[in-house]
Amino acid sequence: MAKRDVWGSRTAFVLASIGSAIGLGNLWRFPYVCYANGGGAFLFAYAVCLLIAGIPLLMLEFALGKRMDNAAPGAFRRIHPKFEWFGWFAVGIGFVIVTYYSGIMSYCINYFVYSFNLSWGSNPETFFFGKVLGMTDQPWELGKLQWPLLIGLAIAWVWIVASVWKGTKTVGKVVWFTVLGPWLLLLIFVIRGVTLDGAAEGLRYYLTPEWSKLLIPQVWLAAITQVFFSLTVGFGVMIAYGSFIDDKTCIVKNAWIIGLADAGTAILGGFAVFGALGHKALIDGVAVSAVVKSGPGLTFVTYPEIINGLPFPQLFGLLFFTMLGLLAIDSAFSLVEGVSAALKDKFGWSHKRSNITVGLFGLALGIPYMFGAGIHMLDIVDRFMNFFGLTIVVIGECLIVGWVFKASGMRRFINSHSEGKIGIWWDIRIQLILPALILLMIGFEVYERIMGPYGDFGLRSQEFIFGWLVIIIVFVASILISSVKGTPEYEGRISEIRKDIADRSGDTRGEKS
Ligand code: TRP
To answer: For the chain, how long is the longest CA-to-CA vector?
Structure first.
């Protein structure tokens, strides 16, 4: 039996997981989602969701991978063969995300080049939507292919695949650089952001909660999905990473470290963005809430704005977009690892073969986003994958581990691999509270979409259908792939480990009272 990849050191595991968690989600997605959902109120909801949902689920995923000694599909298969498709579904949602995620990386790569001449000039907004994106008025108007973006996309994929070439060994080394470097740079941007003229207004918007917003279910849905997205929970990635840990790694402690480092980075990054928004509001003489079109473009407008206000702007431009690229790369390759670990486990493919396959598919599926309508599609797909795909995965994960495997068994497993212990509340959350709450939020969202007048995101019914179509395709693909036979070892070890689980039911299966 081939020995499974193991992290070179415990620090490598923590850094790789932090690297997967911290990415564009923190500096690109968090600020605009926060901005669109009321600033301070969102921040509060975000913190609550991190504590009650994000960190406990991170523990669940690490433990599941470690316990089953397998990436997501194999891990679910070992709970019961009929759940294998579910692991593929999780990985599939992650894969759809990585196709547009690499598109944002392409923006970063282009902006790296633009930094040499500060090509965005004094009006970064017009530059971004006009010159860079060639943005069309609506998603159904495809527009022109933006060649520089396509080239950036190709570079991004070569870079991603090269980074995972040698599995956990390369990953373990690369992350030292990709995690620690960006933190230092971010500090500079935060300091500059908050010292810009007018920053205080922006920060007030960011930090003052408008409590009434907390009554809106969509704000909570946005918060909880942002937590999951940011922690890379619900994509099978942390299950694969968990499967590579050694026996001495403390699951509870590391989940806390990773969760807090990730949230800390997002919140810190928010200071830079909102400082800059305040500055822009002051210059334009309008309220903060009116400064810039919120949405996925926010980052590529506000950060160049900050850069313009720095001494040696070219230098800071280069540094900043290098930093974003470095943050993004380890998130993107963690997903590639998640998918290729699954392919290797099931089909016995070589590391190279799985990586190249994932890379080529990813590149091809990313091309549509490189057209003038790309950012519209990206926005729709992003929202759908997170609001529906990701939430479905998390609910399923909670139900399958909570009720079929039994939460108490998994908790005991976590505690046997941790110094700090978690209590029975963990079971209750996994079995009941999280699935119920998330289901409620999705229910509200669907209701709004169907009943609301075009919804407040301006999503029309065709877009609603398009979003669901992508999810259905992922679903069908996962059923198909799980019905294909895997290597004899993959098939065989299932019964072996299931027997093992049954034999040691006192230890892992939980009480059957
Ligand atoms: N956690 C990553 C970030 O914050 C993003 C991420 C989540 C991701 N899931 C993913 C990236 C799946 C690629 C694929 O940036």
So the answer is: 70
pTM of the model: 0.90
Ligand 1 binding pocket mutation candidate from 17, 106, 160, 235 (most atoms within 8 A of CB): 235
In a domain, 5, yes or no: no
Compute the average pLDDT of residues 357-371: 96
- pLDDT at res. 495: 58
Atom from ligand 1 closest to the CA of residue 262: 4
Ligand 1 centroid – CA 229 distance (Å): 6
Question: Does the pLDDT at position 330 exceed 90?
Answer: no
What's the gap in Å between 235 CA and the centre of ligand 1?
9
The total number of structural domains in the chain stands at: 1
Range of the domain at 76: 10-501
Rounded Cα–Cα distance for residues 60 and 57 (Å): 5
Please report whether residue 510 resides in a domain. Answer: no
Instruction: Over range 52-74, report the average pLDDT.
Output: 94
What whole-number percentage of the chain has pLDDT above 70?
A: 90
CA 268 to ligand 1 center in whole angstroms:
18
pLDDT at 21 > cutoff 90: yes
1 in any annotated domain: no
Q: Is the pLDDT at 492 greater than 90, yes or no?
A: no
Q: Ligand 1 center to residue 121 CA distance, Å? A: 30
Pocket test for ligand 1, best of 93, 97, 361 (most atoms within 8 A of CB): 97
- Whether the CB of 299 sits within 6 Å of ligand 1: no
Q: From CA 283, how far away is CA 264, in angstroms rounded? A: 29
CA angle 202, 318, 104 (to 5 degrees): 70
Q: Please state, in angstroms and rounded to a whole number, the distance separating the CA atoms of residues 359 and 164.
A: 11
Could you tell me the CA-to-CA distances from 461 to 266, 283, 392, 449, 455 in Å, in that order? 32, 38, 21, 8, 9
CATH number for position 109? 1.20.1740.10
CA distance 11 to 249: 10
User: Is residue 288 one of the residues assigned to a domain?
Assistant: yes
Give the position, in ligand 1's atom list, of the atom nearest the Cα of 229.
Answer: 7
In short, whether 232's Cβ falls inside 6 Å of ligand 1 is yes
